[in-house]
Amino acid sequence: MTMRASVLRRDKNVALHEALRLIASSNTSVVEPSISFSTGVIYPIIVKVAAQYGISESEVLEELNRLGVFEKEPHETLVSCPNCNSIRLFSKLHCPGCGSDNLMKTLILTHATCGGLNVLEEAEKTPNCTKCGKPLHETKVIGTLYQCRNCGARFEAPLPAWRCADCRLSFDYKQNRYMTIYRYKVNKDKIQTAEKQLLVSLALEGFADLGLKVASAPQVKGKSGYFHSVDLALTGGLTPLYVDIVPDSPRALGEALSSIAKTTDLDGEHIIFIPKTLEKSVASAPGGNVLFYENARDLLQKTIQLQEKLKVKKR
Ligand SMILES: [Zn+2]
Ligand SMILES: [Zn+2]
Ligand SMILES: [Zn+2]
Question: Which residues pair with 247 in a beta bridge?
Answer without folding.
Answer: none
